Amino acid sequence: MLLNISILIPCSFGNVSGNDYGTKKQVVTKRPNFTEKLFSNNIGIQGIVYCKSGSKLIQLEGAVIRITCEAVDEYGFETTPFTFLSDATDVKGYFLATLFQVELVAEKRVLKECRAFLDASPSKNCNYPTDFNKGISGAELHSYSFLNDKKMNLYTVGPFVFTSTSKSISNGY
Question: What's an example GO cellular component term for this entry (predicted)?
Answer without folding.
Answer: cell periphery
